[in-house]
């Protein structure tokens, strides 16, 4: 990488040559407007707002897609550029409804923000909107073509990052819209509900299905006993919605908030994660000891990953861990164990999950096993974004809330439970416990560094007293095919399995940058949220799931043993091949 | 066919000769076909067999550029300039075959106001220079 | 017979000129030596009658009896051409060999059109086909030698923008690696343009040879021709040509027994106009949706499957074999200082002769339209000429003496484009024309970038407003604003050039827009909402012709009394106006 000299607005700078003009300008505190460029994605250059002038050419060039070159002299702002950009922006606005007041993205919309910055005071061009109904077919997401500005970020993330290809540009010219190909709904498409489209959408065209009303209704219903659980990744992100530094741990404030909203018991999904580890690590140990030919074991906590495997790799279903995801485990425990203790019936309990994830909205009715308590184990899933909105609506001053504790026993977790929120976390937590299960000893270095970090595929070999356990971690589901093809190849050729244990999370970075997390995610944000999660791990004295005394108590008094009869009935699920297209 | 080497290409170029003394060439690009060139071509090819005209070679060629007077037919005989006919319908085609091809009588009124040498490059002698 | 006279007369051929010449020849005893042929009048010559003497290639005009006697005496008996009577154009055509001012067209790209059977490789070979390639391999030229030859020739891309071909090739050649591609853009889509289709149908081997030479120059082993599926005949003939070339060892491994290998495959386009844009074309070949991507990186460096790729269009490749065969300096003699060689145009619209033409660069638009196109049909007045299709602009009559070159057309707000040339007369409404092109561009926009997707639609709707008479003055400012934004901020050439037709008509014909907006009038009657047809009872004699011709039976009346047009039924087709022999139908 070499350094080049460029001039931006008459000032000379030295920058790395692999930067685009847009990135270089941003480093120099020069903000060039854009609606399509996103640091996670390759540049589609669609919106046309980032045009700049380059000395020596009469054309304007796109700052987002043009790499800097030695000697470039760039003008980013002048009267003509302002006029061109303003016209383009007004054109975009002419194709976008003025429904800001009732829009889910109100005050968080990139287009709205730009319109304010440009001082748009009139509509120069006649309003022309797409005439297509919103796609509400999935239980997770709403795709509204009327609001879509066609920037293509969602398509880019769905195809290039996630490798799902549920979204595509359809039609040409003014009629171009973004939808699944083949005149089908999202639910009939390969969509895995990961919600990365919604996290990258600059406007309110793809949003999570808002369920806050259902929660308000549940809270108001006096016959119900409302309980709630918060996922590991939410505690490092919710604070952003209230102006706190990215990655700030707000666990205690969240518990306090939820009690004030009216929940009678506040649990923590990280407890469910500890429970998951007990089951999943037991599965791993069983396979390693008794059925090595059935390896690898693949984690199944991520419902988008479950959906993806069922659709794209149905032949590998047998490698899936049958353990339910943490919030489902906690849900069923709340409606059985907790209910019994409280003298309640399962149907009396109203369980809300606060999740970083849009796919969890899909998971709660995925199979019959999600009704293990006799009723639907999780009643409603809210994303972090929805909780933030609900908080603001409630009038509660989040920042001045005291730190409180969760209700035990379903609220007490170890460090292993909370790192589920980051890529590699499930793997690390499982290894900590599996090591103990196999050797009876504590892992010497409890921080399993090789499985952490933002590298798309992380391979590591863990020595468990002479037995080499080969592991791989993939996140950003577009990366997973590499591992799956290796497994397929090994199965085909009869060669030794390249891996014994595989963790997959559909979203790049893991749940901390899930599809339901607060907007404006980039790698800096991911790193800070991840750091928050690992900090929480470090803050805990107990950092291995099997050490959790409440987990031990739960097994001792209720479940029996991991993979025992009751555990299997309540804590495990199954999978089936699903078609990529339902139509 | 056998693959050529560097020296054989020039030989092939030189040795390819017209085998027939008379040629009928029908312009059969999309424009020609659309205007009815196919029909005319089929007529010639049938009649050549039927009337037993072994000396007449029927060929097709691409668009001459005169799309507005398609179908175009070029008739090349030994002693006459290559004649270009335009707007050739079946009636004209019959006359071209009977009068021009068989009896060297150029069919008045259907000839385009230039010899097809302008377009069709004779492989024999170049026209004289002025 | 050693000479022929081709006689061209105006109108129907009932004049006695033919018989007079016949008699005059017989009197001099020349009737056995000189053949007289009566030709059909297809409008090659601007003045009629004319006669052309073959094989002298001389055309005489002003054919009075006196002059005919003089021609017979001086030309046929004394063998001295009568220079005073020469028509300025000998033939609208000329082949490659003998170029002369006396001819108008000059054929390099179309050199074999009509000369060869496109389904027979021997025909092509006989006409010096594959001699350019042969020379390279026989003389052991290096890729640099080939590129130098192109540099000398000055050949520029014929697809529109006119980027120097040698530079393009050089860029690809310089990238290390042996996986490179040669792509032929045969996705011709401009309305009214069919140069590439005709070339592919008439002379497919010239493209194959040009691409093979490109492959040699840049170090590629594989070429692709991206051709629209709507060109089935061209596809068929290309397939035949490719298999014949492979059989003879002119394509495939070890071409002509050397260690140079190159092969070509076809890729079909599904008819999206935008796939003629090179990056969209590459995406389409790769199996993706055809949408342009930002450049850089340019395809020369990072193209098909991210490998360096040369993309040229059909016409560019067709030039290459001739340049290698005859030499770059031969080619450079043709054309202007900056635009070398010839250009093929599909001349259409209101000219008498429409068709495919090839002229040396630097010929004026007037020569093209009047000398080759034969002028305007029905002796109407020319208003403008449109070049470059939906990406081009409209050039008014006052600029017809502009010599054709990349720069000159651009200066006028149009572009050379791929070669569509549509001539418009006084009956064409400039608002209507702009609307037509915009409609096309709006339909064919891929919809990716917002300036093009939304701007195009807004522009179109504003023009629609103007043509309906509901526009206001500020709408012109809106058009200019949007046009400027599209020009500057669209991603690809399609979007950047979409406003050209409307901006150029607005520039050259502001009064027409003004009439539409302020006076709610369309002088040509093309904008139907602004016209009414009325019958003047004083002039109408009640012949009933208009009522018979009216397609919607909107005209009623009694014979020999004035007829009447029912306005609520009238669809404003103008048929009554055109057929009335008594000027009784008024257009208002």
Describe the structure.
The complex is a heterotrimer of chains A (583), B (130) and C (588). By secondary structure, chain A is of the alpha/beta class. Helix content of chain A is 34%, strand content 14%. Chain A has helices at residues 21-27, 79-94, 110-118, 153-161, 196-200, 212-220, 251-261, 269-290, 303-312, 326-342, 360-363, 384-394, 415-418, 425-439, 480-493, 523-539, 549-559, 565-571, and strands spanning 3-8, 11-16, 51-54, 60-62, 73-75, 141-143, 168-170, 177-179, 206-208, 225-230, 265-268, 297-298, 349-355, 380-383, 457-464, 467-475, 501-505. Chain A is globular, with a radius of gyration of 25 Å. Chain B has a single domain, classed as Glutaredoxin, CATH 3.40.30. Chain B contains four helices and five strands, in the order H-E-H-H-E-E-E-H-E. Chain B has a five-stranded mixed sheet, with helices on one face. In chain B, strand 3 (73-76) and strand 4 (83-85) form a beta hairpin. Mean pLDDT of chain B is 83; it is low at 121-130. In chain C, helix 1 crosses helix 2 (65-77), helix 15 packs antiparallel against helix 19 (500-508) and helix 16 (450-468) packs antiparallel against helix 17 (473-489). A five-stranded mixed sheet of chain C has the order 10-9-13-11-12. In chain C, strands 2-1-3-4 form a four-stranded mixed sheet, covered by helices on one side. A four-stranded parallel sheet of chain C has the order 7-6-5-8, with helices on both faces. Chain C has 588 residues and is an alpha/beta fold. Chain C folds into five domains: 3-85, Glutaredoxin, CATH 3.40.30; 121-330, Rossmann fold; 342-425, Ubiquitin-like (UB roll); 430-519, NADH-ubiquinone oxidoreductase 51kDa subunit, iron-sulphur binding domain (de novo design (two linked rop proteins), Up-down Bundle), CATH 1.20.1440.230; 532-587, Alpha-Beta Plaits (2-Layer Sandwich), CATH 3.30.70.20. Chains in contact: A-C, B-C. The A-C interface holds A 43-49, 51, 59-60, 62, 64-67, 83-85, 87-88, 91-92, 94-95, 124-126, 128, 149-150, 152, 168-169, 171-176 and C 272, 274, 289, 291, 293-294, 296, 442-451, 453-458, 461, 478, 481-482, 484-485, 488-491, 496. Strand 5 (111-115) of chain B pairs parallel with strand 2 (34-40) of chain C.
């Amino acid at each position: 990488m070499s350094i080049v000299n460029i001039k931006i607005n008459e000032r000379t700078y030295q920058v790395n040559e692999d930067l685009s003009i847009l990135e270089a300008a941003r480093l120099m505190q020069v903000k060039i407007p854009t609606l399509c460029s996103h640091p996670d994605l390759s540049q589609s250059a669609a919106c046309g707002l980032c045009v700049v002038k380059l000395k020596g050419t009469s054309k304007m060039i796109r700052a987002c897609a043009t790499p800097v070159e030695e000697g470039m002299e760039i003008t980013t702002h002048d009267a003509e550029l302002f006029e061109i950009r303003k016209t383009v922006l007004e054109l975009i606005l002419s194709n976008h409804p003025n429904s800001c007041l009732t829009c889910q993205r109100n005050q968080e919309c990139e287009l709205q923000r730009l319109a304010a910055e440009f001082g748009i005071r009139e509509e120069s061009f006649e309003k022309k909107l797409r005439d297509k109904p919103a796609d509400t077919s999935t239980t997770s997401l709403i795709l509204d073509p009327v609001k879509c500005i066609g920037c293509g970020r969602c398509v880019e993330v769905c195809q290039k990052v996630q490798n799902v290809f549920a979204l595509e540009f359809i039609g040409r010219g003014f009629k171009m819209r973004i939808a699944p190909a083949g005149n089908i709904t999202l639910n009939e498409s390969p969509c895995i509900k990961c919600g990365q489209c919604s996290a990258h959408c600059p406007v309110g065209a793809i949003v999570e299905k808002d369920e806050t009303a259902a929660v308000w209704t549940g809270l108001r219903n006096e016959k119900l006993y409302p309980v709630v659980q918060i996922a590991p990744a939410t505690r490092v992100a919710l604070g952003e919605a209230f102006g706190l530094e990215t990655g700030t741990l707000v666990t205690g404030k969240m518990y306090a908030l939820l009690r004030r909203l009216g929940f009678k018991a506040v649990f923590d999904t990280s407890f469910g994660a500890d429970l998951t580890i007990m089951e999943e690590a037991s599965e791993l140990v069983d396979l390693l000891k008794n059925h090595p030919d059935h390896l690898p074991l693949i984690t199944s906590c991520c419902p988008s990953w479950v959906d993806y495997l069922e659709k794209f790799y149905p032949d590998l279903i047998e490698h899936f861990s049958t353990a339910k995801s943490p919030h489902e485990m906690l849900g069923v425990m709340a409606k059985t164990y907790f209910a019994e203790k409280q003298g309640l019936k399962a149907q009396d309990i109203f369980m809300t999950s606060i999740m970083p994830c849009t796919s969890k909205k899909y998971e709660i009715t995925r199979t019959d096993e999600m009704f293990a308590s006799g009723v639907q184990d999780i009643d409603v899933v809210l994303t972090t974004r929805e909780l933030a909105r609900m908080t603001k609506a409630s009038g509660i001053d989040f920042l001045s809330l005291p730190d409180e504790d969760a209700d035990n026993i379903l609220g007490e977790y170890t460090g292993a439970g909370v790192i589920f929120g980051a890529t590699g976390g499930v793997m690390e937590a499982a290894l900590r416990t599996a090591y103990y299960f196999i050797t009876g000893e504590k892992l010497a270095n409890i921080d399993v560094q090789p499985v952490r970090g933002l590298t798309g595929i992380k391979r590591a070999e863990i020595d468990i007293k002479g037995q080499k356990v080969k592991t791989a971690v993939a996140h950003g589901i577009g990366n997973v095919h590499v591992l799956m093809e290796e497994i397929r190849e090994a199965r085909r050729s009869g060669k030794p399995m390249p891996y014994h244990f595989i963790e997959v999370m559909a979203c790049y970075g893991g749940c901390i940058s899930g599809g339901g997390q607060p907007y404006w995610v980039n790698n800096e944000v991911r790193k800070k949220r991840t750091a928050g999660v690992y900090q929480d791990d470090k803050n805990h004295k107990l950092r291995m799931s099997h050490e959790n005394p409440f987990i031990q108590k739960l097994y001792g008094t209720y479940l029996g043993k991991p993979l025992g009869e009751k555990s299997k009935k309540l804590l495990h699920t199954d999978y089936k091949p699903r078609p990529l297209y339902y139509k | 066919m056998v693959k050529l080497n560097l020296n054989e290409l020039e030989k092939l170029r030189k040795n390819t000769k017209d085998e027939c003394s008379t040629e009928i060439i029908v312009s059969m690009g999309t424009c020609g076909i659309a205007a009815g060139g196919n029909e005319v071509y089929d007529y010639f090819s049938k009649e050549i067999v039927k009337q037993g005209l072994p000396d007449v070679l029927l060929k097709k060629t691409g668009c001459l550029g005169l799309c507005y007077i398609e179908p175009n037919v070029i008739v090349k005989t030994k002693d006459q300039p290559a004649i270009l006919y335009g707007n050739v319908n079946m009636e004209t085609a019959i006359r071209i075959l009977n009068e021009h091809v068989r009896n060297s009588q150029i069919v008045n009124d259907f000839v385009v106001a230039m010899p097809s040498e302008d377009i069709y490059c004779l492989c024999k002698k170049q026209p004289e220079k002025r | 017979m050693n000479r022929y006279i081709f006689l061209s007369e105006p109108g129907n051929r009932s004049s006695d000129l033919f018989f007079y010449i016949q008699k005059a020849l017989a009197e001099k005893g020349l009737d056995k030596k000189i053949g007289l042929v009566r030709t059909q009048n297809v409008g090659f010559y601007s003045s009629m009658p004319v006669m052309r003497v073959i094989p002298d290639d001389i055309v005489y005009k002003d054919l009075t009896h006196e002059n005919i006697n003089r021609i017979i005496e001086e030309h046929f008996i004394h063998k001295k051409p009568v220079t005073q009577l020469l028509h300025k154009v000998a033939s609208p055509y000329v082949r490659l060999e003998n170029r002369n001012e006396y001819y108008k067209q000059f054929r390099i790209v179309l050199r074999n059109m009509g000369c060869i059977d496109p389904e027979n490789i021997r025909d092509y070979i006989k006409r010096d086909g594959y001699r350019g390639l042969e020379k390279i391999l026989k003389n052991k030229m290096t890729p640099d030698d080939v590129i130098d030859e192109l540099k000398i020739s000055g050949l520029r891309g014929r697809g529109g923008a006119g980027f120097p071909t040698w530079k393009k090739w050089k860029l690809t050649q310089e990238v290390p690696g042996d996986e490179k591609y040669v792509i032929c853009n045969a996705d011709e889509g401009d309305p009214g343009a069919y140069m590439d289709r005709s070339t592919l149908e008439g002379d497919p081997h010239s493209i194959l040879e040009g691409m093979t030479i490109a492959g040699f120059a840049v170090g590629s082993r594989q070429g692709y021709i991206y051709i629209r599926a709507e060109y089935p005949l061209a596809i068929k003939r290309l397939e035949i040509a490719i298999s014949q070339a492979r059989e003879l060892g002119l394509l495939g491994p070890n071409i002509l027994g050397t260690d140079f290998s190159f092969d070509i495959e076809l890729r079909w386009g599904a008819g999206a106009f935008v796939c003629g844009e090179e990056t969209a074309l590459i995406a389409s070949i790769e199996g993706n949706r055809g949408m342009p991507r930002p450049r850089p990186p340019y395809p020369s460096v990072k193209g098909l499957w991210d490998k360096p790729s040369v993309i040229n269009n059909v016409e560019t490749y067709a030039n290459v074999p001739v340049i290698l065969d005859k030499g770059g300096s031969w080619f450079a003699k043709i054309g202007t200082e900056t635009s070398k060689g010839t250009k093929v145009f599909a001349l259409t619209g209101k000219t008498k002769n429409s068709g495919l033409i090839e002229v040396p660069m630097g010929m004026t638009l007037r020569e093209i339209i009047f000398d080759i196109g034969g002028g305007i049909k029905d002796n109407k007045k020319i208003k403008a000429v449109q070049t470059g299709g939906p990406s081009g602009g409209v050039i008014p009559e006052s600029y017809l003496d502009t010599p054709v070159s990349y720069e000159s057309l651009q200066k006028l707000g149009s572009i050379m484009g791929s070669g569509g040339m549509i001539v418009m007369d006084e009956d064409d409404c400039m608002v209507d024309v702009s609307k037509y092109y915009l409609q096309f561009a709006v339909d064919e926009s891929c919809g990716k970038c917002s300036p093009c997707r939304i701007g195009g639609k807004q522009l179109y709707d504003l023009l629609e407003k103007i043509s309906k008479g509901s526009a206001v003055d500020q709408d012109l400012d809106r058009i200019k604003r949007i046009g400027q934004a599209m020009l500057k901020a669209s991603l690809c050439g399609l979007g950047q050039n979409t406003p050209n037709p409307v901006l150029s008509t607005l520039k050259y014909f502001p009064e027409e827009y003004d009439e539409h907006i302020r006076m709610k009038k369309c002088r040509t009657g093309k904008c139907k909402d602004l016209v009414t047809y009325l019958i003047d009872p004083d002039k109408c004699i009640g012949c009933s012709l208009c009522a018979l011709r009216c397609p919607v039976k909107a005209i009623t009346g009694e014979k020999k009394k004035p007829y009447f047009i029912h306005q609520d039924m009238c669809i404003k087709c103008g048929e009554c106006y055109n057929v009335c022999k008594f000027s009784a139908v008024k257009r208002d």
